[in-house]
Amino acid sequence: MSGTLVLVRHGQSEWNLKNLFTGWKDPDLTELGVEEAKTGAQALKETGLKFDVAFTSNLIRAQRTLDLIMDGIGQTDLPVIRDEALNERDYGDLAGLNKDDARKKWGEEQVHIWRRSYDVPPPGGESLKDTGARVWPYYMTEILPRVLRGETVLVAAHGNSLRSLLMILDRLDREQILSVNLATGVPMVYKLNADSTVASKEVLGDMSKAH
Ligand SMILES: O=C(O)[C@@H](CO)OP(=O)(O)O
Fold first, then answer.
1. Residue 143 domain flag
2. Catalytic residues
3. Which domain holds residue 109?
4. CATH number reported for the structural domain that contains residue 55 in this entry
5. Number of domains in the chain
6. Taking the CB of residue 211, how many other CB atoms lie within 10 A of it?
7. How far is the CA of 57 from the centre of ligand 1 (A)?
8. Cα separation, 66 vs 11, whole angstroms
9. Is residue 211 a part of any domain in this protein?
10. How many angstroms is it from 16 CA to the middle of ligand 1?
């Protein structure tokens, strides 16, 4: 066994609340999002984990979530590395559109394909495969080596940038990833083996509220 990797999707954002495609747009957390981050922090505190480093994206909703977690677990001095490689999938021309309006315009099935398929990009944006093409190398070169050295690493990022990581960690294929949704503010604790496979996974909260 080597180290521990904790992944957490940011708390609810203003645009999650308004049901808008967000991608690289940069809305802040809602009050509920702040509460979700604090609840996630409390759950992490109860595990007794002490982190060595934290990674987050260049987007405010993930950075604020991380700040709230660091505060909640009493590790405000944790070194933080921010990188746009961990940003949400770029939703291209869909960014800013209402998801229900998009369903009315293009149909339920097409919108689900844009949101959850592996390799169908929304117009002007990134597919999950494109997202993985930047998230995976970053994980392999910057995050995984630390976990393999035995460090405890926290990553606060986004629904789809984390879904691309879950494909590696949970060994999900392009069909299986279709039905994976991550709830906001719910930490996932992975213990990794020395060969970088997953020894155990624990979800600290209710993932079923994700949609
Ligand atoms: O809008 C977005 O950027 C993402 C995450 O909120 O949405 P979806 O879950 O539809 O991929």
1. yes
2. 10, 88
3. 4-205
4. 3.40.50.1240
5. 1
6. 6
7. 15
8. 10
9. no
10. 8
Q: What is the pLDDT of residue 137?
A: 98
Q: Is 90 annotated as a binding residue?
A: yes
Q: Is residue 190 domain-resident?
A: yes
The per-residue pLDDT for 210 is 82
Ligand 1 atom 10: the closest Cα is on which residue?
A: 115
**Segment 86-112, tens digit of pLDDT:** 999 999 999 999 999 999 999 999 999
Start-to-end C-alpha separation, the chain: 33
Residues with CB under 6 A from ligand 1: 16, 21-23, 88, 91, 115, 159-160
* pLDDT, tens digit (0-9, with 9 covering 90-100), for 179-209: 999 999 999 999 999 999 999 999 999 998 8
pTM of the entire structure? 0.97
ipTM of the complex: 0.96
Query: Is 61 annotated to bind ligand?
Result: yes
Is 117 inside any structural domain?
Answer: yes
Element counts in the chain: helices (H) and strands (E): 8, 6
In whole angstroms, what is the distance from residue 90 CA to residue 21 CA?
10
